[in-house]
Amino acid sequence: MSDQPESRRAAVTGGPRTRVALWSVLAVVLFLILAVAWVGVRGVLAKGHLERAVADVGTLRSQLADANTSAAQQTATRLEDEASAARSLTSDPVWGAAQFVPFFGTNLRAVREIAVIVDDVAEGAVRPVAGVVGGLGVDSFAPKDGKVDLAPLVKAQPAVAQAAQTLAVADRDAQSIDTSGTLSPVTSATDQLRNAVQSASVQVDTANRVVQLAPAMLGNDGGRNYLLLFQNNAELRAGGGIPGAVALLEARDGFVSLTGLASSADFEKQESSVLPLDPDTRGLYGDITGQYMQDVSLTPRFEVTAQLAREMWKRKFGQEVDGVFAMDPVTLSYVLRATGPVQLATGDTLTADNAVQLLLSDVYTKYSDPAVQDAFFASAASAVFDKVSSGGFDAKRFIGALTQGADEGRLRLWSASDDEQQRLDGTALAGELPTASRETRQFGVYLNDGTGSKMDYYLDKTVSVGSSVCRQDGRPTSVVQVTLKNTAPADAATSLPRYVTGGGDFGTEPGKIKTLVAVYAPENAIYLGSTQDGKQVGVQTATDGGHPVAQLQTLLGPGESTTFRVAYLGDAKFANAGVEAISTPGVKQGKVEPLRFECKDPIPAG
Description:
Distance between the termini: 107 Å
Number of helices: 16
Structural class: alpha+beta
Helix content: 40-55%
Number of strands: 18
Strand content: 15-25%
Radius of gyration: 32 Å
């Protein structure tokens, strides 16, 4: 009996092993509490640094847009410090171990990856660009005494190339962050990072291409010669408009001069195409694509247009140029926003507001002789070029004008240098056929005039596109809708000049507009059918570079309109991609509208 109290005390207090176990458990619990506190405190601090870094990014973009380079450099330094601190706070061993704790670890791992990406961008993109930004701004492209100073662009090339590479890697890494089990704030922060990095990557990639291309193309390594095709939207071609005038530009050590002008009428018809045409181009647009300067842009492939024009110039003048530009009067009107009005030799004043009407309509009323019309176009082009080459323009507006022209498909560039052309590929300037990716599927709507006149000044175009998964195999059905309208006056046959209506010389009654409409789908799509004004219609089906094409001809009198619908079946792997359409830029270029349709009848026919 005397042993019983001692036994009870042993049961309560335990032996040495029990006490060791208890202390071990308490130590582990204490460690976990301290670890959670440590991670929590560092997480709060890291969050503050990241938020300030994000704010600095917005400030930096505004400062760069305003060309405030000194302030931008200070902000860049502060951004780098904030990003580095956030990375340091999320890289210690305790944080690293906590990343493997169920549920919470997923969030910590995502925050850590965000901090690493932000720091990498600050160090590998912001820092190098900040070092050269003082000598690189929109004014870098403005000529002074007729010359663009190429030295700042050349100096910036390594830094901008590094920034582009860093952002491309950051974009890839941001997209790979696992947010399937993260809390809403972490998921939201990751999405914001992805959008910001992706946008920055695209912008810096474009800047890198410009910085790498511009010095060489402006003659830094020796003289360059380029053709400039002035495309007339009043007579449409798939690539924009008929090349009514052709200019020769010379670039040498930053100096750019206009050294020659010619009318497309100066180029005689060739007995056969000046270069071999692939069967797709020949089947859709005919051998005339390579026989007439006026028809080189019948194809929407600008690399084909450029090479044909280059060869025609060589045969006519014995000179092989280094590249080809193309632009239209609408782009010229955008440029006039930057230069202000210019005076023409005819006494006319060309402004941003009147350029399109004056160059695409009024000129045919004022001057009936085609030779005088060509001289008028040449005078306009020369006057604007002189204003630009003298540096008499707002640089920011000038860059904006060129960007808008390129985005609308009005400004094109091809280089005979394979390396330079590789940098141009994939940009708005390249004039390529529609592309498809997991994010976006493009369709193309291309118009070619069949009237042989300048009536397309009065042609309005509306394009809509939509897509839906209507099949069990997951393949998307896409529909493109094109509406054309002849807005010419009812008495166009008699009130408009014969040169504008065509006078029936090519088989089209004066006042009417004949148009060939070609709708391109992404590669490997399957043509399903077409309707015109709600009725089934036969079309020419073909392929162009692997793209299925449906083409038909329309004929519209004044006030008449027609609607053409085409349906295609796409690849299941692109089922979730958005859809968009690119199209021949006319006098007006409206936004592509979304299109809804019923799966049971995507192209309803009455």
